[in-house]
Structure formats: structure tokens, C-alpha cells
Amino acid sequence: MNLAVLRSTMRVQIKQSFARPMFRFCLIANPILNTILLYEMYRSSGQENFMAYVVLGAGLMGLWGCICFSSAGDINRERYSGTLALIFAAPASFPGIILGKIIGNTLISLLTLGISLVTAVALYQIPLRLESPFYFLLALLAAVLAFVVISSVIACLLTLSRKTELYMNCIEIPINLLCGFVFPVSVLPGAVQALSRGLSPTYAVELLRMSVWGVEDPGAFWQKLGVMMGLTALYAVLSALLYRRIDRRVRIAATLEVA
Predict the structure, then answer these.
(1) 171 φ, ψ to 5°?
(2) pLDDT tens-digit map of 197-226
(3) N or C end of the chain: smaller count of CB under 10 Å?
(4) Farthest-apart Cα atoms in the chain, separation
(5) Which residue ranges make up each domain of the chain?
(6) Contact status, residue 200 vs residue 180, Cβ threshold 8 Å
(7) Which pLDDT tens digit goes with each residue over 82-127?
(8) What phi and psi, each to the nearest 5 degrees, are found at residue 67?
(9) Distance of alpha carbon 211 from alpha carbon 166, whole angstroms
């Protein structure tokens, strides 16, 4: 994979994403509004250190929203701009270009965590503590990798779809609920919890909260991290297999255009 192409694609994607009003809303307004909403939900709950739910929940909801309306929507935008087929046939690899777009979107979307934190401190003057900074950094890096890989799977699935806008609107809230962005997965029904455990963002949320509260059991942290990285590796393999299938289908049927 050409690293120069990857870097240039990331830079262009960050500029293009921030230029869109919908993306700016997801990046800036969404975490602010979600922070206020979650604070009002949790302030009388009796939950200790509930600000970890508020800040991380609002930030991750904003991050996932940016991914849904950018990484997924980019395929649709390229199609209706008439450039999807050109990107697919370009000398630079199509997976490399799409990966650059996804990484660029994910990196700029991390601002939602900072915006949520600033909102919570500015509005509610509640001191926030990070008990395990090393574990938090490790969990954050793993979470970024997990979001990038799962976004690539979604992008591959939507490459040949003509209902991209429908699907990207349908996947935002279910993931917020299934992965425990708003409340612990343990409150969900057993069958739904089983589905949640098959999604790597679920472990990302748990690892981040563990590191904010303080990692008292390093073994449990590393176990969750191992499961999360295993799922991420499976998603990466799935993404590669999907691309190979898409490549074969496109070369036979030529189905990337609008019509």
C-alpha cells in the first residue's frame, strides 16, 4: 500500500469532511447536546463517577455518528459525483484510498471526546479524574483501530448498494445501544448481550471506562483487550474477503455507477 497516497487521502478527506455542514454538526453540536442529555439522565441516578458515562458516552456517540455519516456516506457521495468508478480503477489501490478516507474521518472525529469533556467541565464544573492514564491511552489506540476496521467493513458492504443513505441512518442508534455507549451492556436482555459481545466497540467502551475509573484488575483489562483485538482481526479479514468479492463482481457486472 502506497503510504503517500494514504497520507494525501487522509488530508483531503479531513478538509472535505469539515467543509460539510452535516459533518460539522455531528462533530461539534452532537457531543455538546449529548453531554447535556446524558448528564440530565444520570445526575439523579445514584451512580458513582457517572461523569465517565456522560463524557465517554457523549464523545463516543459523536464519534460513531461522524463515522456513519462520513465513512459510510463517502461511498454514496463518490457515486453521485461520478468518481467512484474512477477511484476503483485508479493506479492507487481502491482499498488504500477508502482506508485513507476512513482513517482521516476517524482521526478528526476523535475531537468529539474533547468537546464532550470541555462541555461537561464548562457547564457543570465537575472535576474529572483519569485514574489510569497508560491504560486509557492503550484503550484509546485500540478503540481507534477497532473503529477504523469496522468502518472499512461497512464501506465494503455499501460499495455496491443503492440504499446507502437508508443504511447509514439505520446503523447509528442500534450501535449506540448495543455497544453500551449510553448505559452498561449488562442491563440488556441476555440474547441482545450475546450480540453485543460480537461487536468490538463494546469492549472499547468497557476498556475506556475501566481506565477512567482505575484498573484494579489488570488481568481483566488485558483479557478484554485481547478479545477486542481478536474481533478486530476477524473484521479485517472479513473486509479483505468482501473487497475481493466486490472486485470480482464489479469487473464482471460494472455496477459502480448511479444507473
Answers:
(1) -95, -10
(2) 888 889 999 999 889 888 888 999 999 999
(3) C
(4) 60
(5) 3-253
(6) no
(7) 777 778 777 777 788 888 888 888 888 899 999 998 998 888 877 6
(8) -65, -45
(9) 36
Residue 5 one-letter amino acid: V
Cα 210 to chain center, whole Å? 19
| Alpha-carbon dihedral sign for residues 82, 88, 91, 92 | positive
In the block, residue with C-alpha cell 441512518: 169
- The 3 state secondary structure assigned to the chain is CCHHHHHHHHHHHHHHHHHCHHHHHHHHHHHHHHHHHHHHHHCCCCCCCCHHHHHHHHHHHHHHHHHHHHHHHHHHHHHHHCCHHHHHHCCCCHHHHHHHHHHHHHHHHCHHHHHHHHHHHHHHCCCCCCCCHHHHHHHHHHHHHHHHHHHHHHHHHHHCCCCHHHHHHHCHHHHHHHCCCCCCHHHCCHHHHHHHCCCHHHHHHHHHHHHHHCCCCHHHHHHHHHHHHHHHHHHHHHHHHHHHHHHHHHHHHCCCCCC
Close Cβ partners of 211 (under 8 Å, ≥ 6 residues apart): 130, 131, 132, 133, 135, 136, 138, 139, 221
Looking at residue 163, its amino acid is K
CA atoms of 97 and 90, how far apart (whole Å): 10
> Cell numbers of 37, please?
442529555
CB 109 within 8 A of CB 14: no
